[in-house]
Amino acid sequence: MAGRQTRSAYFFVVFPLGILLVFTLVPTVVGLGLSFFQWNGDGPPSFVGFRNFQALFRDAKFWPALRNTMVYGLVSVPPAVLLAFLLAVAVHARWFRGKALVRTLFFMPTIISVVAIGFVWRWLLDDQAGLLNYGLRLVGVDDPPNWLQDGYWPFFWIIVISVWQKVGFCLVLYLAALAGINETLYEAAEVDGASRVAVLRHITWPQAAPMTAFLMVTGVISALMVFDLVYVVTGSTAGSISESDYTNVLNLFIFRQFGYSRFGYASAIGVVIFLLTVVATAAQLGLFAERGGKGAAR
User: Fold this and answer.
1) Where in the chain are the domains?
2) What is the pLDDT of residues 5-23, one digit of tens each?
């Protein structure tokens, strides 16, 4: 009986590990190796060492893509997490009614297709038929901006859409974290006469810190891999606004290199994203661990 249970346990572990190996680990290792080769898909790859990376760092299109990717991660993730925390505190309050409805409404953008979200927002932001510019003209703005083509406006709206989409997911997880906080902490604070701001700062926020760390780390990883939202909102055809240095991101850069059959070069960009992900994750985990240690010491 024990042997059968052991084999069943190994089966349930081996299956997901096998999926992870085939669809994550193997492609990652192959991509890392391919970055040292030049290959267009025809014939055997040609080893070029670090030449792909040297060409990448000299590429004028790489640095704007790197900058935009990092700015997107820094500007979109913290506001979404902070806004979700504040909303979760309000929704979790005893006086709040309609918790289930609010959770559902905020969580809906998380489960809706990014393609659908992108096209809806493109319609809203269209310079001619868009609802936003229509409203601006009604209030007297005769020449509103072209939100999808003028300078950094497309990138600004991509960040806005991203925050709007992520808040619901973070909100639901924060509500789960707040439900696990010991009520005696709040009762003691109430007896001591602590203000709501003090309770929020010294009890709720520290107790929710593990969830904050999780959301920040996973949010930054997701931001570094952003592609679909930028692809849909800015246009998907070559020569469109998606080619602009204002909206180019690393994964969009990789996509175009694959379109040019520069597989080794595209893999080199993938290695840069992988290294950025490792560094960002390690830095955040180290920061949260340090703050957690200081909190425990206090």
Assistant:
1) 61-297
2) 677 777 778 878 888 888 8
What is the amino acid identity at position 72? Y
Q: What whole-number distance in Å separates Cα of residue 251 and Cα of residue 230?
A: 10
| 8 A C-beta contact, residue 46 and residue 203 | no
SS (H, E, C) the chain: CHHHHHHHHHHHHHHHHHHHHHHHHHHHHHHHHHCCEECCCCCCCEECCCHHHHHHHHCCCHHHHHHHHHHHHHHHHHHHHHHHHHHHHHHHCCCCCCHHHHHHHHHHHHHCCHHHHHHHHHHHHCCCCCHHHHHHHHCCCCCCCCCCCCCCHHHHHHHHHHHHHHHHHHHHHHHHHHHCCCHHHHHHHHHHCCCHHHHHHHHHHHHCHHHHHHHHHHHHHHHHCCCHHHHHHHCCCCCCHHHCCCCCCHHHHHHHHHHCCCHHHHHHHHHHHHHHHHHHHHHHHHHHHHHHHHHHHC
120/98 Cα distance (integer angstroms): 27
Q: What is the pLDDT of residues 93-146, one digit of tens each?
A: 888 888 888 888 889 998 999 989 998 999 999 888 889 989 988 898 888 888
Check whether domain 61-297 has CATH 1.10.3720.10, yes or no: yes
